[in-house]
Write a structure and sequence with these properties.
Thrombin, subunit H, six-stranded antiparallel barrel, mainly beta, 263 residues
C-alpha cells in the first residue's frame, strides 16, 4: 500500500512530445447561447497554407430541426508544451454582425454535415500547443481503404476525456461500407463503432504506414468526420439491438470549404 508522498501517487507532468500527436489534433467543443451552456461535441484542427480551421459537424453550430442555434463555441487549448495539464478555454464566436462565420457545403445529395470555422492565429493564447491535419493527410485513392479496415474515432463521448491532461479518447471502428461510394447517394460512408453523443465532429482516421515526409510527424490518414449514429425506424426496441453503425462524411469536403484561401 502506497503511503502519502509516495511518488506513485504524485501527479505526473506530461509533455506534448510524450503523446501521439493525433491527440493534439482534437479538441473538446462546448456550445453556448450567451452565457448558457448548451451541448458538448468534438472537433479537430485543419491547416491549409497559413490558415487554421476548427472542423466539427454542422449540426453542432446550427441544427434547425431542434432549434439549436448557439452564438459561440468554446474549445480547450493546451498552453504549455512541457505540461499538458495547462490549458485555457478559447471562445469562438459564430456570428459577426449577425452573419454566420462558419462554412458549410452541399452537393447533389443535399447538405453535408460538416462545418469549418477559421481561427484567428493572432488571438490564440501564447504558447498554444496543437497539431493539425493538412491536405496531405487526405486519402489520395479510394483503393487504399478496404472493407473492414481498422479505423479510429477520436473524440469526447458524452464529454468523457482525460480531465487532467485535457485529451480525447479513442474508439475502435471498422469500415462498414465501400469507401469511395456515397452510401445511399449521400456524401458519407459507414463505420462500425460504439459511439455516443459528444462524438459529433470527431475525425475518423486510419494509420498510414508509408511514412511519407509530409506526414511523418502525424502518420494518420484523415478519412472522414463523424456525424451521427444510424438506426432503423422499424427496429423492435425490445428484441433488436441498435445497429451500431455511424455515418462519417468524406473529409475531402474540407478542400472545397477552404479552397478559396488555400495555396
Amino acid at each position: 500500500m502506497n503511503a502519502i508522498g509516495d511518488p506513485l501517487l504524485e501527479v505526473q507532468q506530461v509533455a506534448a512530445f510524450a503523446v501521439d500527436p493525433l491527440f493534439l489534433c482534437v479538441t473538446r467543443v462546448s456550445t453556448f447561447w450567451q452565457g448558457s451552456a448548451l451541448t458538448n461535441a468534438s472537433g479537430f484542427f485543419f491547416e491549409r497554407g497559413a490558415r487554421l480551421y476548427l472542423v466539427t459537424s454542422r449540426h453542432v453550430v446550427v441544427d434547425e430541426p431542434t432549434n439549436h442555434r448557439p452564438n459561440r463555441l468554446e474549445i480547450e487549448l493546451h498552453t504549455d508544451a512541457e505540461n499538458l495539464a495547462q490549458s485555457v478555454a478559447f471562445s469562438v464566436p459564430l456570428h459577426v454582425w449577425g452573419q454566420p462565420v462558419w462554412r458549410q457545403g452541399c452537393d447533389a445529395g443535399g447538405c453535408i454535415d460538416v462545418a469549418v470555422v477559421e481561427l484567428d492565429r493572432s488571438r490564440l493564447p501564447p504558447g498554444v500547443v496543437l497539431r493539425a491535419f493538412t491536405p496531405t493527410h487526405l486519402t489520395a485513392t479510394h483503393t487504399e481503404v478496404r472493407a473492414g479496415e481498422p479505423l479510429l474515432v477520436v473524440g469526447f463521448p458524452l464529454g468523457f476525456h482525460d480531465v487532467l491532461h485535457h485529451l480525447p479518447v479513442v474508439r475502435h471502428a471498422a469500415m462498414a461500407s465501400s469507401y469511395g461510394m456515397r452510401f445511399g447517394g449521400e456524401g458519407y460512408f459507414l463505420t462500425d463503432a460504439r459511439t455516443h453523443r459528444g462524438t459529433s465532429g470527431a475525425p475518423v482516421v486510419m494509420h498510414r504506414a508509408d511514412g511519407g515526409h509530409a506526414t511523418r510527424a502525424l502518420p494518420w490518414r484523415l478519412l472522414g468526420v463523424h456525424s451521427v449514429r444510424l438506426d432503423v425506424g422499424h427496429r423492435d426496441l425490445v428484441r433488436d439491438e441498435s445497429l451500431g453503425l455511424n455515418c462519417a462524411w468524406y473529409a475531402d469536403i474540407l478542400l472545397t470549404l477552404t479552397q478559396d484561401v488555400g495555396p
